[in-house]
Amino acid sequence: MTECPRCHCPVDETDNFCRACGRSLRPGTGFVFSHTGIILLALVLGPFVLPVVWTSKLISTPAKWIYTLLLALFSIYLVHAFYQAYLLVQDAAQLMLGGGF
Ligand SMILES: [Zn+2]
Fold this sequence. Notes:
Blueprint: E1 2-3, E2 10-11, H1 35-45, H2 50-55, H3 61-96
Antiparallel strand pairs: 1-2
The structure holds zinc ion (ZN).
């Protein structure tokens, strides 16, 4: 058991809002701020999930740095992959045009 920071009523560890005064006990909590939520969001949003990572109250600071690092590496990989794909498309286009210029 913990207590509400506003009215000091006892609140349950799992409560998101105080039962007595209705204060939000955990801004930055909820499913998207959990590890599972962040990983799922990262798959969709990529590096844009970073604000969620850093406002989360559910994951530790070292975990936030790990996510930041992984997302940075992922972004670099994506840029690299897109560049490779671009080169492939260029090669393919040249082949289709009869061996280039
Ligand atoms: Zn309260």
